[in-house]
Amino acid sequence: MTEYTPLMSTPPDEYEVESKNPNTEHPPRYSLLFSLLIALVAVAAAAAFHLSVLSETHQAEPLLRTTDIESSLRVATPSPNLDKGHAIMRDKKFKFPRMVFPASMVRANAAEPDMVYESGSSVVLSPTDSMIYHWRTNSSWPKCYLTGWVSPAADLTGRKSYTWDGDVTAIQIWNLSAPADRNALKTLSWNTRPSRLSLLGTVNFTDRAVQNGLGHLDGQEIKAPTPRFDCLGDTEITVELTCTACRLEFQQVFSMPPLGFELMQLA
Ligand SMILES: *[C@@H]1O[C@H](CO)[C@@H](O)[C@H](O)[C@H]1NC(C)=O
Ligand SMILES: *[C@@H]1O[C@H](CO)[C@@H](O)[C@H](O)[C@H]1NC(C)=O
Ligand SMILES: *[C@@H]1O[C@H](CO)[C@@H](O)[C@H](O)[C@H]1NC(C)=O
Known about the structure:
Layout: H1 5-8, H2 10-20, H3 28-54, H4 66-74, H5 82-91, E1 98-100, E2 104-109, E3 117-118, E4 122-125, E5 129-139, E6 143-150, H6 153-156, E7 162-166, E8 171-176, E9 187-188, E10 196-203, H7 208-212, E11 229-230, E12 233-242, E13 246-251, E14 259-266
Antiparallel strand pairs: 1-14, 2-5, 3-9, 4-13, 5-12, 6-11, 6-14, 7-13, 8-10, 8-12
Bound molecules: 2-acetamido-2-deoxy-beta-D-glucopyranose (3 copies).
One 2-acetamido-2-deoxy-beta-D-glucopyranose binds near residues 169, 170 and 204.
């Protein structure tokens, strides 16, 4: 038990500080909680000690202090099994979602409602500009959803970029009525665009790596930005992207690293 001595040296100091304050009366409930806490710290410390014994470099490393354990707990990844899960998926050759590039992307400008735009890679969103996206897929994978995909800044460096202003964390995706002739989706104006049917969801057009590291967004991908819809076999979907308080501009081109609005298809 002598190994644990350094760990025991911290709590008594805390007791001293507490007992110097004459106004502090600990009801039995609190002292019970406190001893429980101490017991938990001791268990954690014992576990940490065993871990350090198991690690190769244990001789060089000093025994962990309670504060070290606390800080390592606080930075612990919220989804510790995610990497493990991905590794298993790779091992077993499970299929990752497939990203389907849009068949057309056309700007619609409310400020010039008769101005006709052609499908192209330029994406412009503003309080008066929306984008009409159209996807087609024909595959045996049954489910799809739509999302915004912003590769980490380190991957984009020098290859792709986007400019934005205002709030790009809730870009709306509206399902549109299907036009009789899909070629009509290649050339559109604000006045000739298909009508909105329903709001499918909103996407957060910010760095994916940053989003993945934020505790308060943990689990957001469990619920896809838009509901999953059936897309087995020949499927088409037309949506309008809008934002009421943002300005976003970039080129969506078919190359790595991904940057843009994408259809994700699940096996
Ligand atoms: C979709 O794929 C199936 C199987 O590959 C094929 O038979 C069918 O003709 C395709 N449909 C269209 C509209 O391309
Ligand atoms: C979008 O609207 C079309 C009708 O144009 C409908 O068939 C389809 O199910 C809707 N999609 C979603 C995901 O709600
Ligand atoms: C969007 O993602 C950013 C990180 O890139 C995060 O700070 C923010 O809270 C997210 N917003 C929403 C509404 O999810």
